[in-house]
Specification:
By secondary structure, the chain is mainly beta. Among the domains are: 85 residues, Immunoglobulins (Immunoglobulin-like), CATH 2.60.40; 35 residues; 87 residues, Immunoglobulin-like, CATH 2.60.40; 89 residues, Immunoglobulin-like; 83 residues, Immunoglobulin-like (Sandwich), CATH 2.60.40; 89 residues, Immunoglobulin-like (Sandwich), CATH 2.60.40.10; 88 residues, Immunoglobulin-like; 93 residues, Sandwich (Immunoglobulin-like), CATH 2.60.40.10. Helices cover 10% and strands 43% of the residues. It has 8 helices and 87 strands. The strands form 20 sheets. Strands 27, 29, 31, 32, 35 and 36 form a 6-stranded mixed β-sheet that branches. Strands 47, 48, 50, 51, 52 and 53 form a 6-stranded antiparallel β-sheet that branches. The longest helix is centred in the middle third of the chain and has 36 residues. It is flat. The two termini are 97 Å apart. Keywords: Cytoplasm, Immunoglobulin domain, Repeat. Pfam families: fn3, I-set, THB. It is found in: Cytoplasm. Its main location: cytoplasm.
Length: 1207
């Protein structure tokens, strides 16, 4: 930034003079300074020289022998990695003695400047942009200003480094007039320009209300000068949409990324209507907000931590933006990494999803509000002072670690920049020819820093001065803080003495490197004056340090000063001092010290510490008392003063305007309003009035009245007898701001839910005697404190109090073991013989592990077992236990029973058995196969798996845990099909189970289809079998039919195990199509298409006169042969085949060449050529070769297969 700048518009009276501009620049890391001009370059070292003084951080741009062609606008551009700043200055050169030339030159300059202002700045795509000169303003700057609110002007200027507000506003007004004229050609009005922003659903939008003259006008969207295609609605193919709702146009963009950052423009025809910039900060959530469960009327907190500092993020509640106000508090930590949203006084309607958006990143979480069930119907719940939610971790620690990481990265970047600069400097040092020789021969005047000025001499040089452009708010000025005279003078004196001694010690050996603008031996001001604020009656001292002893004069408001009474001017070595013994009002003014051609000046302001009116101070000091939920107001009047800062504090912490705090600051008073006060707001409230001369404070007290806190516990039992219980408690720690008037006492009998009010006691008594009690019964008590604001929360007795001495029951009978396993032992016992006159409520069971002395209660006295039996599940397998029981009555647990016999926690021995296993599993080839079998056995059995009675392959995995064994085939193949047997064997016995695993895949398409008609109305469909038919005995076929009348496909046959099918009801004149599908357990194959049948061909022609006899006689043939079977013993078996022949053949079944048609162990059928044989239970003797023989008068056909019966 420009800390100080001495550049203003100026005029050179005559050619050949010396002109220079100078500015002091600050920044971290140290910025790079570049000088340039509008028309022409400044690379000629004989005409332009840029110099830098490291002692004062002052940059000087010099022009020896100014010529007329050097009259121009000059720029000083300052850039570092965090931004840039720009200052412009105009230099006019006038030839002495020629007035007309001066007027002519001024007029030409004005005309050229107007022409520049009328020139439009258009955004061009990056591919068409030319490299801008140093100091040239980005065209986007003007586009953003034309659509921005006035409150954003300063931010935009700072971003683009523009510091000349007056020039900017003048040019902007002219551009707005031109733009409005162009817009009037296409629109009637423009309003409600809403810049682009990110929504909680992850989209970004900007809006504009636009009334078009012609609704058919073309609308275009541009991003950084390039046209953006868009749709009417957001869809999957295009990310950008422009939709219209009445006169409102809404631009939407989804799937946001960092590449979406840029300048977006909305044009109608060729005129820009609206421009907005979309920035995507490099930020993410280190800690995201988490779900919050809050009770009704409790505060809820959402917290998150960012990866980079961000001054503000967007908060949304149920898709609506949230702002700071009475309902919500938005907090940001000092390092801007931790962000919080406080939802105050939560109600059930506040339930929903809340989101936090930082750039294009977002996170969301639920707010769940639980209704207060204790509130009576029709009444509102009391306001709670607790907070629910939060991140559940130390956010400060996370933020501190991230801050350290960011700081480390910044240091590394600075070191890289420093190294690059040192390398560049070293390169220049090694090549001295690059240093301009003219720079060493040019005579330069000496200059000073801060408020030091050099006297102008028109006959020797001309100084170019900056106009008001450098004084805009966009450039932050760093000035020394004001102080009271004595401390300021002391500090200034120490600094001046140190600088003077350092300067004098090196005066003889000084070179141009330390003072590049000083001539050896010439007096120079090394430490100038600074502004001082002094109190009335105190002393003030102004000190100036020179590099060498020299004379000088002091001036006040332009008049020279002399030593008088109360004013002393002294000189000590290189230091000159002006001391005012007792400051008065007339000492205020502008003081200046002049030594030769050099001067420095500063203001001395005399004043007083702010004062408060005594009556107003006394009125403010009175305490302010309000009730919970009400507003508290404080007001302090004071006399209007300049530079007065007003601050408010609560309990020593400064409070700011926002949320539940409202601060009003007027010239003659200030007011503080605290809304919806809570009891915790009670404390001191302080106002501070501060000016450069000091501060004054006034303190008041805020008292917030509320219900008292609960009485202080615990409740003490003073006395308990068969007829009286006396209890005692302490006064509450917080009386709610007003004295407790009385205490209310309630009682509840143990085991019941009803509370009964016993009475009240006065506030100075903290005990109560309950005389209405029953001997042996237990009671609970709770006590309330009451003040004028209401009842407090209750103090409740932690344990029940018994009236009188305990009467315990006698012992029950010894427990007996009913059943025992490794996880549970069941017990039973008999009730006690002697109950001692008290009813039994239940029982308490205890256990003891063998080899230990500790008895452990399995249930509490307050949780009795009501029956005379129970199941103990808290046991360790293999351990031995014994148990005992005690009866429970109103007095408590009675005498213990004798212990039971020792019992071991283990299962009884049992033979292995399988629990509901599957006997058939189908797996798709290539997938992993997992077969899980659960079993029960004691002791644990040994598990063995077999495949087809053989050991399983090594690539098949077996996983066995207690009670379950699993077979895993990682990548199954058809060869893995077979009968898998699991065998479980232990000392009691052995069990086995067979599981058939079928590995298959979707069948392949059947072969070609042929159609044949032998009888009118019927068509025989035949097809070649699927290649998978021989591999899968569960494969079958499906036939679908399509005709030209219905034009739909319908299934006419399903589960066909043959390769032919006869279709009926085939009508002439209709086209038919057929599809044949192969199906199995995995699904259906692609269809095999038949040729077209009917309408144009494949018909049997008959004229009724000439007919030809058709013979259907044929020898038998096997359409579907028998398949190989491998069946376990005792299982059912089904064999089938298909036979065709005319006349119908006789079919016989053979086993090992022995006819079995008449054997009752086989059920044989023949249905229209489908021959089947069914065996209900397969026996070992059923193994062998089976053969089917079909015989008619034209021949015979046969097929055979084998059956293997496994154990």
């Amino acid at each position: 930034m420009f800390r100080k700048s001495k550049l203003t518009d100026g005029t050179a009276n005559g050619q050949g003079k010396f002109a220079f501009f100078k500015a002091i620049v600050t920044g971290d890391p140290k910025p790079t300074v570049t000088w340039s001009r509008n028309n022409g370059d400044v690379s000629d070292p004989s005409r332009y020289q840029a110099k830098y003084d490291p002692n004062s951080d002052e940059h000087t741009f010099e022009m020896p022998n100014v010529m007329a062609d050097q009259a121009d606008t000059y720029r000083c551009l300052v850039v570092n990695e965090f931004g840039q700043a720009l200052v412009t200055v105009v230099l006019n050169v006038i030839e002495v003695g020629f007035k007309k030339n001066k007027a002519l030159q001024q007029r030409n300059t004005d005309e050229n400047f107007t022409t520049v202002l009328k020139r439009k700045s258009k955004i061009r795509p990056k591919s068409e942009q030319t490299e801008r000169k140093d100091g040239e303003i980005d065209p986007r700057f003007w586009e953003l200003l034309l659509s921005a609110d006035k409150k954003d002007y300063e931010r935009i200027c700072v971003e683009f480094g523009v510091t000349d507000f007056r020039w900017m506003l003048k040019k902007l007004n002219e551009m707005k007039e031109e733009r409005e004229k162009d817009q009037a050609q296409f629109v009637k009005s423009l309003s409600n320009l809403r810049p682009i922003q990110v929504n909680p659903d992850g989209t970004a939008t900007f809006e504009i209300d636009m009334d078009l003259l012609e609704p058919s006008s073309s609308i275009y969207l541009f991003k950084d000068g390039e046209m953006v295609p868009y749709t009417k609605e957001l869809g999957e193919e295009m990310r950008h949409a422009l939709r219209q709702v009445g006169k409102r146009y809404i631009f939407c963009m989804r799937d946001l990324s960092a590449d979406d950052a840029g300048l977006y423009q909305l044009d109608v025809e060729d005129v820009t209507m609206f421009s907005t910039e979309f920035k995507v900060p490099s930020v993410d959530f280190l800690v995201k907000i988490k779900e919050v469960a809050a009770k009704e009327r409790e505060d809820a907190v959402f917290e998150c931590v960012l990866s980079n500092p961000c001054s503000k993020i967007m908060w949304f509640g149920k898709n609506l933006p949230l702002e700071q106000g009475d309902k919500y508090d938005i907090e940001v930590s000092e390092d801007k990494l931790i962000h919080r949203l406080l939802v105050k006084d939560c109600m059930v309607v506040d339930k929903g999803i809340y989101s936090a958006c930082a750039g294009i990143k977002s996170c969301n979480a639920w707010l769940v509000v639980e209704a207060d069930k204790d509130v009576q119907k029709g009444k509102k719940a009391a306001r709670k002072t607790t907070r629910a939610g939060g991140a559940g971790m130390d956010l400060q620690k996370v933020a501190q670690e991230q801050q350290t990481k960011l700081e480390k990265e910044r240091i590394e970047r600075r070191e890289q920049i420093k190294a690059a600069k040192e390398a560049a400097a070293a390169a220049v040092t090694t090549d001295p020819s690059k240093i301009p020789a003219a720079a060493e021969q040019t005579e330069t005047p000496a200059v000073v820093s801060n408020n030091t000025h050099k006297e102008n001499d028109p006959s020797k040089n001309v100084t170019g001065v900056m106009n008001g452009h450098a004084a805009v708010a966009a450039v932050a000025a760093v000035a020394s803080a004001p102080s009271v005279a004595k401390s300021a003078a002391a500090a200034q004196q120490q600094e001046t003495t140190a600088l003077a001694s350092e300067e004098s010690s090196r005066a003889d050996g000084a070179t141009g490197n330390n003072q590049p603008h000083a001539v050896a031996g010439e007096p120079v001001i090394t430490c100038g004056l600074s502004d001082i604020y002094a109190l009335h009656g105190t002393s003030a001292e102004l000190t100036v340090a020179m590099n060498v002893p020299s004379e000088g004069n002091w001036f006040k408001d332009g008049e020279q000063l002399n030593s008088t009474t109360g004013v002393t001017m002294t000189k000590e070595g290189n230091c000159h001092r002006l001391t005012i013994e007792s400051c008065r009002d007339n000492d205020t003014g502008l003081y200046r010290f002049v030594s030769g051609e050099h001067s420095t000046q500063a203001k001395l302001v005399i004043g007083d510490v702010p004062e408060l009116d005594e009556d107003a101070f006394h009125k403010f000091s009175k305490p302010v008392t309000v009730r919970v939920g009400q507003n508290a107001a404080f007001k302090m009047p004071f006399a209007p003063q300049e530079s007065l800062m007003v601050s408010w504090f609560r309990n020593g912490t400064e409070i700011k305007d926002g949320g539940g705090v409202k601060i009003v600051k007027e010239p003659n008073h200030s007011r503080l309003i605290l809304r919806d006060c809570l009891r915790t707001d009670t404390g001191d409230v302080k106002i501070q009035l501060k000016n450069p001369f000091g501060a004054v404070e006034a303190t008041s007290q805020l008292i917030v009245l509320d219900r008292p806190g609960p009485p202080d516990g615990p409740v003490e039992v003073v006395e308990t007898t068969s007829s009286v219980i006396e209890i005692k408690w302490n006064h509450p720690k917080d009386d709610g701001g007003s004295a407790v008037t009385n205490y209310a006492v309630e009682r509840q009998q143990a085991g019941q839910s009803l509370w009964t009010k016993l009475g009240e006691v006065v506030a100075d008594k903290t005990s109560f005697r309950d005389r209405n009690v029953t001997h042996g019964k237990k009671y609970n008590y709770r006590i309330y404190a009451e003040n004028p604001e209401g009842l407090s929360d209750a103090l409740e007795t932690p344990d029940s109090i018994m009236a009188g001495v305990m009467i315990l029951s006698g012992p029950p009978g010894a427990p007996k073991v009913v059943n025992a396993s490794k996880t549970c032992i069941s017990l039973t016992w008999t009730p006690p013989v002697d109950t001692r006159g008290q009813p039994i409520i239940g029982y308490q069971v205890e256990k003891r592990k063998k080899d230990t002395n500790e008895w452990i209660a399995l249930n509490g006295v307050t949780d009795p077992i009501e029956d005379v039996n129970c199941s103990v599940r808290d046991v360790t397998e293999g351990a031995e236990y014994e148990f005992r029981v005690a009866a429970i009555n109103e007095s408590g647990s009675g005498d213990l029973s004798p212990p039971s016999a020792m019992v071991c926690a283990k299962n009884p021995n049992m033979r292995p058995c399988f629990k509901d296993p599957e006997d058939f599993v189908v797996i798709r080839a290539g997938n992993s196969a997992r077969v899980k079998v659960c079993y029960e056995a004691e002791p644990a059995p040994q598990i063995t798996w077999l495949k087809d009675d053989e050991p399983i392959s090594p690539w098949i995995n077996i996983i066995t845990i207690e009670g379950m064994s699993q077979l895993v085939i990682p990548s199954s193949k058809r060869s893995d099909s077979g009968i898998f047997t699991i065998i479980a064997k232990n000392s009691v016995g052995e069990s086995s189970f067979d599981i058939e695993i079928r590995v298959t895949d979707e069948p392949k398409t059947p072969g070609p289809v042929e159609l044949e008609q032998t009888v009118n109305g019927k068509v025989i469909i035949s097809w070649a079998p699927s290649p998978d038919q021989d591999l899968d005995d569960r494969l079958y076929y499906t036939v679908s039919q399509h005709d030209s009348n219905t034009r739909v496909w319908k299934t006419v046959a399903d589960r066909l195990f043959t390769n032919t099918y006869t279709v009926n009801n085939i009508l002439p004149g209709i086209e038919y199509h057929f599809r044949i599908y192969a199906k199995n357990d995995m699904g259906r194959s692609d269809p095999s298409q038949s040729p077209t049948w009917g309408a144009n061909g494949n018909r049997i022609l008959s004229n009724g006169v000439h007919s030809t006899a058709v013979s259907f006689e044929r020898p038998p043939s096997i359409l579907v042969p028998l398949k190989v079977h491998n069946s376990p013993e005792g299982y059912q078996l089904y064999m089938t085949c298909a036979v065709r022949g005319c006349p119908t053949p006789t079919v016989s079944w053979y086993l090992n060449d022995v006819c079995i048609n008449s054997d009752s162990n086989y059920y044989i059928t023949n249905s229209f050529g489908v021959c089947s044989m069914y065996i209900l239970r397969v026996r070992p003797e059923d193994s062998g070769e089976y053969k089917v023989v079909a015989v008619n008068s034209f021949g015979q056909a046969e097929c055979s297969t084998k059956l293997v019966v496994r154990d």
